Amino acid sequence: AAELGVELWEAAPWSERPSGLEGADLALFEEFEREVEALAGRVDPDHPEETDGAGTLDAQTLAGWLEERGASAPVLEAVETAVAVASSTVPTREMSFLAYAAKAAAGAAPTGLTLRFRGGPSAVAARLAEVLGAGVRLGAAVGAVEDTGGDVLVRLSDGTVEHAARLVLAVPLGLQRQMRFDPPLADWRRRALAEARYGAVVKEAALFDGAASVPSPDLSADGHVYRFAEDERVLVRFAGAGAADRSVDV
Hints:
This protein is an alpha+beta fold. A hairpin with a 6-residue loop joins strand 9 and strand 10. Helix 1 crosses helix 4 and helix 1 packs across helix 5. The longest helix has 19 residues. It is globular, with a radius of gyration of 22 Å. The model has no long low-confidence stretch (mean pLDDT 90).
């Protein structure tokens, strides 16, 4: 961002945790947080499969870990809210303990990422395209990628072909599924493309005539509701997992 001249700003962190837990419920919630933190401390986010006991940890879901320790309904709901609704967007009954710890090890913050781009992430892409100039092609869908051994051919849907010494493919898995690769990808990669999926998430914004009022609590099973830092008239709801499928009044 600094190289491209895109300004950064620091947003306020989100609520730290759902409210209302006490006694044994609060103790178990805090134990869960410590367990995630401890595992994240020994996981290499680039190679989580190398973690001791990776197979067992990957098969263990967050909700399953809690239930094995006798978690009550309020604790399960609190973790679902804090993890799935406000962060991972994948239900805790489907989220691997290892995967969640690897996400935390990679720098994901449960209270929301606070470092933002002025103008949004697209400002970086727009500025990069401006700097690169004619070397950037927009709206050019890729149909196939071919590795000849000497160079890489990228066949576009309009029939044109781009040549390159190397290719960095950084697009969502759903789009990669639509591409043809020659030679075919490795078996593990094809399996990943076939089986991997994304969580469900929705972000809604409401514009008011005056300063918007943030509800209390601002984090609930319906998502995290906050005032947009750059315009106090805008109220935003971020909701993942099951909350993404519900329409709510804020």
